[in-house]
Each structure stands twice: as C-alpha cells, then as structure tokens.
C-alpha cells in the first residue's frame, strides 16, 4: 500500500471516564495462568474498527449504546474491570475490585470517505481515534482496557480499543466484544458465558521442560557474540497487500508437493525471506520464525479449554535457519519451515511452555532483527463485532510491533478478501523489502518443473 498524504482534522474528546460493571461483582483475587503472565505478553495491543452510517439506527447514538453495553458486559467479564498486581516469582494476579475500564467519547470533523485507507494498519491516524491518557498504559495498577468511540460527520463511527495482552489474546478479546454486541442489541444474558479456568494453562508440579523453545534462545551471531538489540530510532511501517494475484504468483515458486499449502504459510515464508534479504544480515547468522498458533484448535483439543475461555491460549513455536539458506534457497524451503513451526504445537508444547516460563522466572523474549514473529488475525472474530450498525468495514490490530506482524483482512464486507501484512523495519530496509517483494510476486514467474 502506498504512502498517504497527511490528513488534518479536529477531534473533540471528552475527559476519559471510568466505566464500571452495571451491577455489583465479586471482590476477589484471581491468578492469571502461566501462559498469560509471560514477560512477552506484558504490553497493550491496539485494535481499530470502522463503521458506516446505518439509516435503520437513526436516533441511536453509538457512543451511548456502546457505553451502556460495555458496562453490562463487564458484569460477566468483571476481571477486566480490575487491576493487576504482581506476587512472588513475578506471578500476576487480578484484583477484581470493579474499579472500571477507561472510556473516551469523541467527535471528529471527518468522514469515512475522507479517511480512506488511513484506518488500515499501520493506521497513521491511530492517535486521533485512540488517545493514550497519561500513565494509563502500565501493566500493574492501571486500567486493563481503554475504549474510545468517535462519531464521524458522515454518521459512521470509529471504535478504538487497547487491552492489556496478559488478560486475553485476540480470540479471547473477540469473545468479550461479542458480549458487548449482544448487550447492545438487547440481550438479557450472554449466548456464551465467560469462563476463567486459567489453571488449565498453569505449569505442572513439578514443572518440567520437555520441548525445545528456540524462541527464548539468546541471539548470537556466527562468531558467538551477542546480537545487538533493535535500534528504534529510524523505524518505518507500511502494510503490504496479498490478494489473489499475489498469492497466484507466489504459488508458482513452489514444487508440486507444496502446491496445497495455506495462504498463511505462503505469505509468511515470502515475508520472512524478503525481510531477511532487506536487512542484509551476515549470511552465517541464524534467523528464526515464530508463528502464533492457537491452542483452541482441533489438533490440541485434549487441553479441553471451555468454549467461553477468554485467556491467552496460544504459543509461538519457532524454527531457525541460517540467513544464507533462507535467502538462497527457493520459497518452498521457507514454506516447509513455517509448516514445521506450526506442527510443533500440541498440548505438550503448551505445558512445556508454561513450565519453561516458571522455571526461568518468566524471561523476556530476545529482541533483535534476527527474530520475526507473525500472528494471523484474519479469523479471530473481530469482524463480527456488531452493536446494531452492522459489521465493521475494517477490524483488526492497528499496527505492527517492532518484530511482530499481525495479519489483517483488507475488507470485512466481502467473502473474498486480501491480506494486509504490516511490516516494521528501518527506513532503508523497508525500501529494499518492497523491491524484494515485487520480484517475488511477479506474475510471469515460470512454474517450477515437476
């Protein structure tokens, strides 16, 4: 997606307010799981959704509807209205005290048409639609959720949200949003009541690491020296579009036995290779790809997570390659590695990950350009969030986060949709990435001979 000209428009925000549960809720302390409170999840992630005017909702105000529905949904999801604190061994727990979540009402002198693609990641207008009140985004003792609803002059609105990742993953958040949607549309109770059950993803007693967790290996170069951390001073973001034409072109790079690979595997292998080429790393160094894989799937249903479970239920199994092999070999090499990453995920992997986290004191994920993490959010359920105005035009995570890319749908209204991949790189590397991607997605690439 090309760069967009700046768009200036006034936003009138009301003072942030705390929305509390509509009825009294239990005062108690609940422990997060040992998957929830990993160091790598101790951040807030932003989600943005755009809605067009709906004539059938004339006379209804989206801000008022959502504010009331949010309060009613918090009766069921009351831990989200609490505050986190930390116990021994960095163990996180929620003080369920009904203190509330932050809510901001706003008006913007702009239309959806004028906004155009600016609502899509990396969303250059995010600060307008998701204000960050000072000292509100800490992990401990801060609101766990922030919502801003902004009316537009066309009658549509923007729903912006920021949530503490330790409380839930994207699928869990979608369950909470669905609860808000049901309350907004007049339900007296929820079709799927939430279930805490975080103990199902706790470490064993005694904890035992039974799988290889490359994602936590220290980043060393080919000489055995530590790789420098990411320099954030000259970073740029752009989203890259993968539609049917790009997917068709990429499949031409594959041998017959990989011709049925998923679009996720294909896009991820392509982006990983182009990213690595663009960074011009030492050919002998090691790079790693980590794919977020959800534990709610059929392959690992022996975890027996209840359908209403809204905690973090994913891990990022990782595979490695030398820079030289990834860059020199055909695309199929990367596809097979991505498949291998996903295939590691099962109940034992999740148990080992929880055990690893506890044994190692919840260590941080190594940060460096040799690391790339991808999360597919095209099918999370964000796009079903309906408070009476219909499905959002766009719904997804608003930006990449340094070494993490969150895949999103480009259009939530169509059955056929393209994939947006936001990429965060140093400016010069981002230009090289675009050139490498153009080479990979040329339509005239000859099919690999059988």
TrEMBL record:
Coiled coil: none annotated. Transmembrane segments: none annotated. The keyword Cell division does not apply. Pfam families: Transferase. Keywords: Transferase. GO terms for biological process: fruit ripening, climacteric. GO terms for molecular function: transferase activity. Belongs to the plant acyltransferase family. This is HXXXD-type acyl-transferase family protein. It comes from Prunus dulcis (Almond).
